[in-house]
Each structure stands twice: as structure tokens, then as C-alpha cells.
Amino acid sequence: MDALIEASGVAKTYRTRDGEPLVALKDISFAVAPRQFVSIVGASGSGKTTLLNILAGLIPKSAGEIRIRGVPVEGPQADIGYVFQQAVLLPWRTVIENLMLPVEVMGLPRPESRTRALALLDLVGLGGFAERYPYELSGGMQQRVAIARALVYDPALLLMDEPFGALDAMTRESLNLELLRIWHERRKTVVFVTHSIPEAAFLADRVVVLTPRPGRIADIIEVDLPRPRHLDMMQTDQFGRYTSRIRVLLGQRGEGGLE
Fold first, then answer.
1. Does residue 113 sit in the same domain as residue 133?
2. Smallest Cα–Cα separation from 121: which of 153, 146, 139, 90?
């Protein structure tokens, strides 16, 4: 199967205020097949968000090449949905109006887009909340709205930057299951950035493990767990072997920086 995403020799170097080079990413090469769920995990400062932003065309790479569907990425892509660490909802707009914002920006037909937006609210379990305002929603509900908004124009690729990192553990587990259900129904290609080793292994078909800065690929772990997945899988020896392997790659021994 042809890859949806191909990254080859990607690097990113920033300049400090003193003009010194700061290498964030170096020699990143990997591919993502259509409809795969890929997690990217690494310590703070390993370049996870930088890599995601390069994939989205939001920031330029310093070297290498990114191709999506065989086309080089040189700027923002219309066929990519992005879910940020925070829901970033406009407080003066209702839930449905927030969902319709990308439709307005992209000039898409409103009636059919509104129908799709309402269907997505049903999909994320918020069918009765279209006319509510963000302040009336919990943090988890706001992130569900953000996921629905990222899907409203039917992108082929969904990029997610630690979308559940600020939520409590129970809400996070619930939304992990919800995300897998949505992914199974919509079969989008997903690239998901996280600090959490268990979350990375539980969600993904493959886990890309980044080294500390400059971020390089330490390894790509194939996660051979059956789908659909359930939380009890986290208690199995097989799951434990995956998380232990990722911890070893990250230099973790059960203490410090990552879950």
C-alpha cells in the first residue's frame, strides 16, 4: 500500500536570539500508510510538536522532504485536520458556530457542511450541545468539539498534539476510547503526539520513539494488539512488554519525565 505520509531526512534548526543554532530535529525518516494510527512519543524538548507542525506545513523544515500523497509539503494543507493541546474554541461562538469556522474560512457550502457538523456532534457524543457556549462545557467536552471541528471538512489526515494532556486520568482514558471509536468509524489517518507511554501504545498501530534533543528516531515499535481495544489490555503482559521497550528506548526506568 502506498504511504500517505513520507518523511525523508527531515531536520529543523532554530536560531537563538544570540544567533546560535539550536537543532530541534535531525534525520527524521518514516512513512505512514493510509488509515494507520501512529503515535509519536518523547520527552519534553524532543521535537514532537515541531515535527507535527512540519507535517502540517505550519513551519518550514530546514532539510529533508515531507510528502503527503506524493506531493511535497511546502505550506499549510487543506486536507489536514489539526487538534491542538487546548481546544481553542472561540468563547463568543456556540458549539455549532465553532465547528463551522473552518467551513467559513475555506468557503465550503454551508448547508451540507452544517449537516456534516451536526452529524459529527452526534459522533462525539455531543448531539444536544450545538447551541451551547464553550464555558458551558467541561474540558473533555471542549476537546470533543475540537476533534469534531478538525473533521468537519473531511480531511484525509488528522494531526493531534497532546490533545488530552491537560485532562484528569479518568477523562483521558474515556477520550482515548472515544477517539478509537471515532477513528474506527471514520478511518482517518492519525498522527498523535503524546508524553504518555501507555497512551502511545494503547492507541497506535505504530509508535515512533524520539530521542532527547536533537530529536531523532530511536525506533518505531509495531503494536500488535487486537482491535477494538479496551482498557483491560493495559494489564496484559504483552502491553507491558511494549511500554517497557519504549521506556528503555527513552532511557526511563520507571522514574522521571514520562508516564
1. yes
2. 146
Q: Which residue has the cell 457550502?
A: 109
Chain position carrying cell 468539539: 145
pLDDT tens digit string along 112-146?
A: 889 999 999 999 999 999 999 999 999 999 999 99
Residue 84 is assigned to a structural domain of this protein: no
Distance CA 164, CA 209 (A): 19
Number of domains in the chain: 2
The sheet carrying 189-194 orders its strands as 80-83, 157-161, 189-194, 37-41, 206-210, 217-222
State how far the Cα of 135 lies from the Cα of 81, in Å rounded to an integer: 24
- The reply to whether 13 and 136 lie within a common domain is no
Nearest to 246 by CA among 212, 216, 220, 214: 220
> What's the burial of 107, exposed, middle or buried (CB within 10 Å: 0-12/13-18/19+)?
exposed
Structure letter (DSSP) for residue 202 = H
Euclidean distance between the first and final Cα of the chain, in Å?
A: 34
Does 174 share its domain with 238? yes
Q: Where in the chain does DSSP place strands (E)?
A: 5-15, 21-32, 37-41, 63-68, 71-72, 80-83, 157-161, 189-194, 206-210, 217-222
Please report the pLDDT score of residue 254 as a whole number.
Answer: 45
Q: Which domain holds residue 100?
A: 91-155
The tens digit of pLDDT for each residue in 191-225 reads: 999 999 999 999 999 999 999 989 999 999 999 99
Does 143 lie in the same domain as 177? no
- Answer yes or no: do 98 and 162 share one domain: no
Task: Return left, alpha or beta for 31; rule: phi > 0 is left, psi -120 to 50 is alpha, else beta.
Answer: beta
